[in-house]
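User: Show me a protein chain along with its predicted structure.
Assistant: Here is one chain, sequence first, then structure tokens.
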Amino acid sequence: MSAILATATAAKSGSTVTATVNGTPTTVQVARDLAVASGDVLVVERIGSQWFAVARGFATAPTAVDNDAPPTPRPAVTSGRLAVSPVETRSYRPAGGWRGDVDDVLQGDYGGNHTGAAFYATKPRSLAGATVTAATVRVRRLPGGDHAAQATTLRLVTEAARPAGAPTLGASTAGPALAVGGELEFAVPLSWAQQLVDGTAGGLAVYDATGAPYVRLAGRGSWSPAFTLTIMWQRG
């Protein structure tokens, strides 16, 4: 085989020296008149089952040799997707509290300005330590209010389960705009989904402080995929 470079890890002792050959500590036979010190770069060849050092390389011992050790392996990258159904969907009115007659997710003023919410409990936290790469929530609009497409305002919710009083609303963004009967998978901000995974948030809501427009989105009782959150993630 062709000669390669190795690095002595000790001084020559008798007729041999210990050297790193292709990343492996190896006993190498040394030419009779070749002096070897620890750190010397050796030109070695393999004959049969043994390695032989035939010369030293460089004027002085360098700090590293390209073929001394294998490259450091890159960490494995794993990825996947997690679908999380809400443990509950419900709507809150300041005067009447949480509605018990329906579990649809309502926005707007109809007997009180509704905050419609979906709570995800602890399942998103099963991805703790992962980085969210994308997230969507599935919504469908039911009859109620103007039949044409109406805008919603999406809110991040602190609680992972329905509280006794009003939900704690965090960040907001433009939410899905649907006509009656429409449905879609709406992109959730990455930072929000990351907070759900990290455990600093627990749900999503629709709420507009003006009380308009009035929009009725399906809850779990009227449409089983309602507010299913899909999280794409990776580790490494």
